[in-house]
Design a protein that fits this description.
single chain, 24 helices, about 50% helix, binds flavin-adenine dinucleotide
Length: about 525
């Protein structure tokens, strides 16, 4: 049975009981990927419940090293989450709401531990926002059942998407769309007719003062440090912390700055990795220090039209990118087998991949001899972030030029991205390797040299990340794009820049043949 169905069934079982739960002494909001007080549906509902029952609200976050391990959460992302928890704890504390954070070693123990803590605190209701990964859905189904047995009401509510999975279906078949364009039309139509869905949920109200008295120890509990296998070195800590300030206030500032200063150039500049042209808010959306709903609401307010698909083309374009995030989460909720390392398109399961360890290592280290690929991989390794155009270029290069199983790249990304998000990452890899939902056709193979000239003409991005090529000329046919090509001199060689690990024309023909062969076997 699909995990979302299991959860829905478990929720149905408790639905009637929920309102009959006797009022105890507290209400809990369980934070997961929603580390903010602004525009947070689950937190708002919890606060309303606490207010109407006249009891305190407690916030809880459980750190699970096994979860970090299983979800391949990068150490930079773990550090960002823990730092965001510090900000959240301080904000909640001002509202007299304690944030209790505990490490639970075994992930399977989480539903049990939540109920145990809630019994101890005398909690009547638990709220959280739904996440759509299979593990999360199963965990929430288990928690629903545990709560039912103990007479605690549990509500998990849709919040992470702007339009929740299940709201849109193809008019013809009634099923979930597997193609973005018709899905996006339905998404716009839905929001155009449900404008109030974009209203922000108010921040929680201040707790009654009694919370400080009854739950003093919860206010005092510290945020734990990162589990041993997710620790950053001292140098990395310094670097990531200066690049990625945590928390919802930083997220709000970034969003506001982007919308007031840069969104009007988004269409023309969003593909240029050298410029500061995109919002760079993915880390906040992934950790929930910012809501996707807030982004769309703010973009709509800045637009000349209140419709999602009309008005300023730059704003429409940005809205459609946020919609991609929703699209991939809908896909995950409807086809959970993508969580199990399976291609969305089964006909692409049987491609004969090369498992060339040297090539893979060269790719991870940014030493393939293709400057745009190497610049991008070095940006990822240094910052935990990569520009979207470059994510597509390096994913295409790994899966097609090097013909290496896209799942190895998907994994490497998760292990290094600070904005790692299963659905978007899996969707992006599926798109670029032509094995996913609504992908590039397999015969569309990026030429890294042409991509480089098109999107980094003067070579500013390459020069920033590949210092060996800093003195090479950019422009059309410039050697910075192809340092061992026709216009090469000996600078690249002298600076120790590697020669290309494969020749693109050969690699292209090989990929076309292998994909065709794989399809033939399917
Ligand atoms: P903007 O251009 O300002 O867009 C705003 C927001 O829209 C982004 O923050 C993001 O939440 C969403 N968005 C934009 N483009 C996409 C897209 N193609 N797919 C899904 N959502 C999108 N994004 C992640 O958040 N986490 C990932 O792990 C991730 N892995 C990716 C892997 C590959 C191979 C590819 C091709 C794309 C991946 N993306 C991922 C999508 C995209 O590259 C990033 O969201 C984007 O680069 C973030 O920068 P930004 O915030 O400046 O984006």
């Amino acid at each position: 049975e699909r995990p979302i169905k299991t959860l829905e069934k478990a929720i149905m079982e408790t639905k009637e009981d929920r309102e009959n739960v006797r009022v105890r002494n507290a209400v809990v909001h369980w934070f997961k990927c929603d580390l903010r007080t602004r525009d947070n549906k689950g937190l708002h509902l919890a606060s309303e419940k606490a207010k109407s029952a006249g009891v305190p609200l407690i916030a809880m976050y459980l750190v699970s090293p096994q979860d970090f391990q299983a979800h391949l959460t990068s150490p930079a992302r773990v550090d960002f989450i823990l730092r965001s928890l510090e900000v959240l704890k301080a904000d909640l504390s001002e509202l007299d709401i304690p944030l209790y954070v505990e490490t639970v070693e075994k992930r399977k123990q989480i539903p049990h531990r939540i109920v145990e803590l809630c019994e101890k605190w005398g909690v009547s209701h638990i709220f959280c926002n739904t996440e759509y990964e299979v593990d999360e859905l199963r965990r929430e189904a288990a928690l629903t059942r545990n709560c039912l047995q103990r007479g605690i009401a549990f509500a998990t509510v849709p919040d992470t998407c702007v339009v929740s999975p299940g709201e849109l279906s193809s008019k013809g078949t009634g099923s979930q769309f597997a193609v973005y364009s018709p899905w996006f039309r339905a998404w716009c139509a839905y929001l155009n007719s449900h404008q109030s869905d974009l209203n922000e949920y108010p921040r929680p109200e201040k707790n009654p003062i009694s919370a400080r008295e009854c739950f003093k120890d919860l206010f005092e509990c510290p945020i734990p440090s990162a589990p041993p296998n997710k620790q950053l070195s001292v140098e990395e800590k310094k670097r990531f912390r200066s690049m990625w300030p945590p928390g919802e206030h930083e997220a709000a500032q970034r969003l506001q700055k982007f919308i007031s200063q840069r969104i009007n150039k988004y269409s023309e500049s969003r593909n240029l990795p050298a410029g500061n042209s995109t919002a760079v808010i993915s880390v906040h959306l992934a950790s929930g220090t910012l809501a996707a709903r807030t982004c769309i609401g703010e973009a709509r307010n800045a637009n000349t039209s209140k419709s999602m698909d009309a008005g300023n083309p730059n704003i429409m374009s940005w809205i459609s990118e946020i919609a991609w995030r929703d699209f991939y989460k809908h896909v995950l909720a409807h086809w959970p087998y993508i969580c199990m390392s399976k291609s969305f398109k089964p006909e692409y399961t049987d491609i004969h991949w090369e498992y060339n360890a040297e090539h893979f290592q060269a790719w991870t280290e940014g030493k393939t001899g293709y400057p745009i690929v190497d610049a991008a991989m070095r940006q990822l390794n240094h910052t935990g972030y990569m520009h979207n155009r470059c994510r597509m270029i390096v994913a295409s290069f790994l899966s097609k030029d090097l013909l290496i199983d896209w799942r190895m790249g998907e994994r490497y990304f998760m292990e290094h991205l600070i904005d790692g998000d299963f659905a978007s990452n899996n969707g992006g890899w599926g798109f670029s390797s032509s094995t996913g939902v609504d992908p590039q056709p397999y015969f569309r193979i990026f030429n890294p040299l042409l991509q480089s000239e098109k999107f980094d003409l003067d070579g500013a991005y390459i020069k920033k990340w590949v210092p060996e090529l800093r003195d090479l000329k950019g422009g059309k046919n410039g050697p910075v794009h192809d340092p061992y090509g026709r216009k090469a001199d000996n600078v690249a060689e002298k600076n120790g820049y590697p020669r290309p690990v494969v020749e693109h024309k050969f690699a292209r023909d090989r990929a076309l043949a292998r994909y065709k062969e794989g399809l033939g076997r399917a």
